[in-house]
């Protein structure tokens, strides 16, 4: 293990150091970490609202509480791009010794300028009371509103680009003295509010032009442009075991670069859900499941194994942490991962754009999916019961044990061992790096 760590350090260490000293990546890393209070608070309420006890789950739905728990998601997780675009510009400007608050506000405004601001709402001829059903659309109206589809994880890549470009422009133009100078008699707060007027105008005009350029394309906005680029290559994928592994690998790869996996799942999920229904129908009729491998591989590769990226292994590896940073992160972000809520870990570590964690993020679906595929064959596993459905927050060993007995639990254990083995050496590199930084800071303070 020490030789492996030394080998990985040799190749990943220089990259990590370069990114730590790079203005873009250092600011982005801090921006992600600054969202941790939001994601941690949301994680607590997410677990309460989706606690994996059927009686509680039904009570939340029937009592009307679900809409309020959903509002928590809407105000936190589904607004994460808003927090990030502000934080990124704020940190970048702060590091450049410029006004961070103004930079953050300008970035947030620019992000909203680029975003589609109308939602089409259809008026039906008659009320639909049964599903599935057909209804005649009599009118379509446009309602002025922002879609949480863009303010949440799907908009992260745009948020990163906007936050960076806004901050770069703000710092550059400020250094060029394109500010309004106020007399000394004017109060400081008033002067600071008025001085960047010219700069804010230039920045907003820049993003207004970008909006117009994308509006002239078939994509209509930069959000749909990025979504379309990702969606097209995925439409040819099928539901074969190999394709499922590829799908989750692509999802993790995109998540590493700040592109929410919903862009992938939005394309393939209807097909996977249809296959899941086919499994349920077959189980009801006492027939073999037509998409057994899809269900098993999807469970160990998807977000049901400690959240997106399969982070059970990372949290378990954190029990060996020597740095205070990862000890504290394990205490705060570890418990939600049990219930497949890992946003505090993803943004707190962070895992995104962190070269140390690139390989385990991308390789975990390949290795775990392949092992699950092999175990199904070796164990002749056919006992999966898809009719047992539980909330998405149900810990993987509980769900898999109930759905498939000891064989499915054994598949979980094999996947978990592979998951831990994959994450552990990379975590040790990150932990040692954090420990060295803490020692350096301590010696600086003492000296």
TrEMBL record:
Report the principal subcellular site: membrane
What's one Pfam family here? PTS_EIIC
UniProtKB keywords: Cell membrane, Membrane, Sugar transport, Transmembrane, Transmembrane helix, Transport
State where the protein is found: Cell membrane
What topology does the record note for this protein and the membrane? Multi-pass membrane protein
Q: Does the keyword Transport apply?
A: yes
Q: Which GO terms describe its biological process?
A: N,N'-diacetylchitobiose import; phosphoenolpyruvate-dependent sugar phosphotransferase system
What would you give as a GO molecular function for this chain, any one?
protein-N(PI)-phosphohistidine-sugar phosphotransferase activity
According to the entry, every stretch annotated as the PTS EIIC type-3 domain falls at 8-426
Any one of the GO CC terms: plasma membrane
**InterPro entries of this UniProt entry?**
PTS_EIIC, PTS_EIIC_3, PTS_IIC_cello, PTS_Sugar-EIIC/EIIB
Q: Spell out where the chain crosses the membrane.
A: 38-59, 71-93, 100-119, 149-173, 194-214, 234-257, 264-285, 291-321, 356-376, 408-427
Q: Does the keyword Transport apply?
A: yes
> Briefly, what is this protein's role?
The phosphoenolpyruvate-dependent sugar phosphotransferase system (PTS), a major carbohydrate active -transport system, catalyzes the phosphorylation of incoming sugar substrates concomitant with their translocation across the cell membrane.
Protein known as: Permease IIC component
Supply the source organism for this entry: Enterococcus rivorum
